[in-house]
What does this fold into?
Amino acid sequence: MPALSIPTLRLARPAVPRLPRTAWIVAAVVAVLLIAPLAYVLFPAGRATAVRPGGSRASATTTATVPINSPEAAAIPGVEAKTGLRFSGTCKPNIACLSFASQMVGQEAAAVIFSTASPGGRQCAGYTYRSGGSWHFLGAVCGLPGQLSPLVGRNATVHVPGSCANVRDRGSLAGRVVTCFYDGTVVHIDGGPTYADSRIWWHETHGWMAHDFLIAP
It folds into this structure.
């Protein structure tokens, strides 16, 4: 008998179009541009956050120009709160803001001077002290550049209604009292600041006085 042969079916493979190399490169770039924003949204923990000592956020300008755990870093938020102005490394013309003018650093204490860049040319002094290895804000005063007090080289007025302020032979409550000044007495600050016994101290001609007696109420 004649042999029978079964015909075989051959399926044609689909032809994959060849793309030029430039098209693949463009496709890869587009994919990266689409994936990056999606990853930013899905993984917020990877975003950088600038934090001031104490836990509050700082502006990019502040963290870029102010060393962490420094007298300046401690003074900025306190002076901002007192004045309602924001700190900037460079203030734009005719726009009031805070910028550094100078500072006096003593023993565990400092006075940081800010310019307000306002038409009146006012300045503010932020007083800070170091305790436990960290700098802390004590208070601030504002006024015309030549009127800020207490500062070394300036006169200061004693404020102690109905009593007198002790002057000691060293900047400490353990110092011996050498004299006492009544309210309204003008003294000349020639040394300081220093921090001891939870107080900032300034030196005048006769001895050391506590910061609180030299700040207007």
